[in-house]
Amino acid sequence: MKLLFICSRNKWRSLTAEKIFHEVSGHHVRSAGTENNARIKVNSGHIGWADLIFVMEKKHIRRLREKFGTMLNGDKKVICLDIPDEYTLMDEELIEILRSRVSEHIEIF
Q1: Per residue in 65-87, pLDDT tens?
Q2: Residue ranges of the Phosphotyrosine protein phosphatase I domain (predicted)?
Q3: Which member of 9, 37, 57, 65 has the lowest number of beta carbons within 10 Å of its beta carbon?
């Protein structure tokens, strides 16, 4: 399964998710951000590639729908993890939250 993780700047939350889930068997993982100054800015290629999209906050769903609305219609599943922008890269608490919330939707172990 191809997993895409989205946050605002792709520097802390989504990049942490990409790093911790990239070795999970059977899954391919990428990350991107919604803002213009994102490390990697989400584009239509990312959306088309992904089987499942995880966003950190509801505002990210809104931004994706504004820009890629037609691509998100149909069977493209977008899941909000409700993780606020208050963590740094590879923060232990962030890793624990990501593992817990993502495991509700896919098998990660």
Answers
A1: 999 999 998 788 999 999 999 99
A2: 1-108
A3: 37
